[in-house]
Amino acid sequence: MKNQQVILALLAIGATVLLGGCMLAAVGAGAAGTVAYVKGDLEAVEAKKLDTVYDATKKAMEQLELNVSSAPKDAMSATITARDAQDKRIRVKLVASTKDSTAISIRYGTFGSEAKSQMIYAKIKENLE
Fold it and tell me: What's CA 66's distance to the chain center, in Å?
């Protein structure tokens, strides 16, 4: 009886790990406009160039009155780090997927907040239109 419980527990853990990996793969392989919330990060892909998404993200931070502390960028990626009024850290990573699409990863606070990440992403999208 104990062996069956151990085997079931191991299968449940294995399934969780495998399904989590599948979600990440699906997000990475998805078409532009795909959005998922995975392990505290909002992940999205936009059919826009890195420079365009970078500018939209910086503008969104300003509009949301978030204090940007750093915003390094090169031709392939960028990371924008900011803090809100409660001193929560917001990190937005941008990676050029192709020359005309950009992967976006938003993390709000230490453990993530889907609602706050969605607010930031909505403001970025608004600035992209």
Answer: 17
E strand map for 1-129 = 35-38, 41-46, 67-70, 77-83, 89-98, 101-108
Report whether 112 contacts 39 (CB < 8 A). yes
Q: How far apart are CA 90 and CA 107, in angstroms?
A: 6
Q: Alpha-carbon distance 10 to 121, whole Å? A: 37
Q: How many domains does the chain have?
A: 2
Its pTM stands at: 0.73
Q: Extract the tokens encoding 5.
A: 């419980």
- The domain in which residue 15 lies consists of 1-30
Residues 22-35 as b/e (b if ≥16 CB within 10 A, e otherwise) read eeeeebeebeeeeb
The 10s digit of each residue's pLDDT in 76-122 is 999 999 999 999 999 999 999 999 999 999 999 999 999 999 999 99
Burial class (CB in 10 A: 0-12, 13-18, 19+), 18: exposed
My answer on whether 23 and 40 are in the same domain is no
